[in-house]
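Appendix C reproduces, verbatim, an entry submitted by the partner laboratory led by Prof. M.T., so that reviewers can inspect both the input and the predicted structure.
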Amino acid sequence: MKKDLLSIGDLSLADINAIFKLSQQLKKNKRKFAKSLSGKSLALLFQKPSNRTRVSFEVGMYQLGGKSLYLSPQEINLGVRETISDVAKTLSRYVDGIVLRTFEHKNCLDMAAAAAVPVINGLSDFSHPCQALADLFTIQEKLKKLKKVTLAYVGDGNNVCNSLLFAAAKTGMNISVATPKGYAPADKVVKDSLLIAKETGSRILITEDPFSAVKAADVVYTDVWASMGQEEEINKRKIIFKDFQINAKLLSNAAKNVLVMHCLPAHRGEEITDEVMESRNSIVFDQAENRMHVQKAILIKLLRS
């Protein structure tokens, strides 16, 4: 039976640990896995442009001995030129897996329901599972553990925030989320994460005070204030989010050797300062690199099953 990755909610703690273990092996010895997906093909179906997601999947698939095919928004025009179901059924006859980067999470659900091959969520408005897995892998790599580590997320309660909440709860990592009023993560995401946290011992805090969120945090994380599709809100959000910038003043309330993360692209001078991005505390580009290693592990797990 085929498996998909649409949300961190699809994964057990055992699944996450297995992905991390394989990611570590892939990062350490690229040649050992050079033929792991020989003869396999991957369709990259993107409604949104991308730097890291596209390049990391394309290069990762190549390094595993497989081939990827990029399908731009203009080529497919998903749901307009052709139904999602028809696209999924057709691609299933050609390729061994599909990465969908889309606006609405429902598109991922519909694609997975119709496809006969694994579907990976490369980003939707609800979830960004590959990003969150790479983030936690990076934290574990740097701090040698996840349990009882405290991650503070400051900014918009968006898809990345949702995925980090689920991932933290599942792994027993503590997470504090600070957003302006009206921009908190979805109630259902918070409720579901809190239920999981009861079993794992994770502590979850949702606040509107960034200084409270980062207090004694081991890791501070941010993302853009306006995601793709929210361009008309940029000027409004700059005003609303101005006190949620990751800067030296805010970080002074965090742990002494706090690590700083950003999923990129970064709008320097808005959600994060140049000073912080370029500081010794920043692991932003280690985090970006690990997208490829973790996604290679995901591809092996799903396409070889």
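DSSP finds 13 helices and nine strands in the chain. Additional entries are available on request from the coordinating office.
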